[in-house]
Specification:
It is built from four helices and five strands. It is α+β, with helices and mostly antiparallel strands. α1 (16-27) crosses α2. It starts with 5 loop residues before the first strand and ends in a 22-residue tail after the last helix.
């Protein structure tokens, strides 16, 4: 079930900038050194990406906060083939976390994809998320099939010879 105070709405084209801003807000301050801080130009890029024909908005699960009319969170699936779906985005704004919203939206998305004949669903996540996203995915039956290691230097690193 959805938490009290939340309603689902069909994602209309004019909602896409609000959804992109919700995604940016959900990741704000999630990592040390603001590694994934999203700029306004990046929000504009996300708006363009989610407006592309690759996205079938009828698949999207977008939760709206009834009290203030903002997007509380979203699960944005895609069809990658007749039997293959991909969860492109799962994000919940900080004020709505730990209330079952991500579980409710993701469950709805998985059931909708299955009703459309999708038998394999993929998604990616970062193991560092404090939100414990991996715990949610495994509790819904997802299995880790591949782990990718990423290496990075800190922004202030200077190599000397």
């Amino acid at each position: 079930p959805l938490p009290p105070g939340i309603e689902l709405r069909l994602a209309l084209p004019e909602h896409i900038p609000l959804i992109a801003e919700s995604i940016a807000d959900a990741y704000r301050d999630e990592f040390p050194d603001h590694r994934f801080q999203t700029t306004q130009s990046e929000v504009a890029g996300q708006t363009a990406w989610y407006s592309s024909p690759l996205h079938d908005r009828s698949l999207w699960q977008v939760a709206w906060d009834q009290a203030n009319g903002t997007v509380a969170g979203q699960v944005l699936p895609m069809l990658k083939g007749p039997e293959y779906g991909y969860i492109d985005e799962v994000s919940i704004r900080a004020g709505w976390r730990r209330k079952g919203l991500a579980r409710a939206l993701l469950t709805r998305a998985l059931l909708d994809l299955r009703s459309r004949g999708v038998s394999v669903i993929g998604l990616n996540t970062t193991g560092e998320f404090r939100t414990r996203a991996r715990d949610l995915y495994t509790s819904l039956g997802c299995e880790v099939v591949k782990t990718v290691l990423c290496y990075r230097k800190s922004p202030g690193f200077v190599q000397t010879r």
